[in-house]
């Protein structure tokens, strides 16, 4: 199981927004439209979350990462991802 959220700061909306599809993972749009990006990882964490344990009935730690995708001309995006313990990258 994976959960992700993203926070966008668009500098030039028209240049990118028409190419990014809301309903698809952002990485697929970057690949399909050959959009150049730079990724800077800010955090990698391994933790427990009582709310996730109660909702998902999983009594194991989760891990995640937070990173920024940069393209100085058009956008800055912060992405935070959470992964179940069974997912190893």
Automatic annotation (TrEMBL):
Query: Which Pfam families does the UniProt entry name for this protein?
Result: Rv2949c-like
Cite the Gene3D superfamilies for this sequence.
Chorismate lyase-like
Q: Which InterPro entries match?
A: Chorismate_lyase_/UTRA_dom_sf, Rv2949c-like
Q: Which gene encodes it?
A: ycf21
UniProt keywords (A-Z) are: Plastid
Q: Which domain of life is it from?
A: Eukaryota
Q: What is the name listed in the Swiss-Prot or TrEMBL entry for this protein?
A: Uncharacterized protein
């Amino acid at each position: 199981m994976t959960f992700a959220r993203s926070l966008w700061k668009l500098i030039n909306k028209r240049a990118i927004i028409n190419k990014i599809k809301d309903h698809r993972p952002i990485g697929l749009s970057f690949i399909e439209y050959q959009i150049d990006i730079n990724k800077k990882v800010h955090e990698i964490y391994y933790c427990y979350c009582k709310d996730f344990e109660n909702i998902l009935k999983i009594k194991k730690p989760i891990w995640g990462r937070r990173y920024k995708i940069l393209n100085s001309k058009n956008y800055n995006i912060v992405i935070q991802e959470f992964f179940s313990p069974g997912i190893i990258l």
